[in-house]
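hey can u run this one w/ alpha-D-galactopyranose bound, need the structure tokens asap thx
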Amino acid sequence: MKEQLLAKFAEVFGDAEGAKVFFAPGRVNLIGEHTDYNGGHVFPCALTIGTYGVARKRKDQTLRFYSMNFEQLGMLTSSVVGLKPEKEADWTNYPKGVMWAFGEKGFTVDCGMDLLLFGNIPNGSGLSSSASVEVLTGAILRDFFGFEVSNQDLALIGQFSENRFNGVNCGIMDQFAIAMGKKDHAIFLDTADLSFEYAPISLQGAKIVIACSNKKRGLGDSKYNERRSECEEALAQLQKELPIKALGELTEAQFEEHSALIEREVCRRRAKHAVYENQRTLKAVAALKANNIEEFGHLMNASHVSLRDDYEVTGVELDTLVEEAWKVDGVIGSRMTGAGFGGCTVSIVKDESIEKFKEVVGSAYEKKIGYAADFYVVEIGDGPVEL
Ligand code: GLA
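ok here u go:
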């Protein structure tokens, strides 16, 4: 892989003298969806698939970008001076956003670079290809400029760039899962204070299977920001009586007792999801620790129902993948993962049922939706590295 990437870099940029190769993973969230901007818990893990980057510092202030995933765009060029988001800059707004964010945090990127990317996570699939590019860029800048930042800082800078440069009010989950990834472990993160714990994932004869709906989405064009403001509206109304900072502080019973304070029915449902999903995440991690994988699966299923009915971020593609999965013997749990509106589902499937799962869910999906889904049996990997 490394040799091929360096060869491609040389083909695109003339030679590969002094170029270094880095990797940052993608992520999948096992449970705890749309809780990270509500001060709740999440339970994601980094994957062994992700984004490779070959980079070389330049002496001038020019930035030259090339993505093997968007070869039709060719080489995109700009300057490290006066960084601002531009529509025609396309995917390069992600690495440029991170360079800008480092500058805002007092770490000046004062010379340009050549950067070639290759991602083996499907783009726009909900496995965080953009957060992967952000953390990758951060790891490259840290190495090239000697910035003293931790992996957790890389996550925060990545999120800051996505919020402020790319206009998506995402929470911290994706960048954190990627920057802090650990092989064979999921990350039980409390987004209220960023305290976290690594939980070993041993699935006792089962694997994590991702089904990609191939319905493309980008957070920017989804209703992500709208969901976030609906939660904020609900919180503000609850705060009239409750001394809370975030929906994640409430138990189900406390929520039910005060939910009438929320004026709009739609906001009440959004807040209900945030509260119950956070509690489900706590229960799921406890079930996993008790080796009760069946219970973990039931909670995943309940998470999907709540995302479908109360949060309304699923859609016919994700619902079909999940509802067909639930019918297959050997499926321990299945739900949508990530922001929703398209993208992927995550299922825990017993080893002996994986082939049948792909066949049955795949053909039912194609019949109903009109195009095929893709399936990936994934492994949990580490955070960013230089290869
Ligand atoms: C996207 C965002 C995350 C999180 C999820 C939903 O992936 O980037 O911060 O909010 O959606 O759980």
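The mean pLDDT is 96. anyway lmk if its weird
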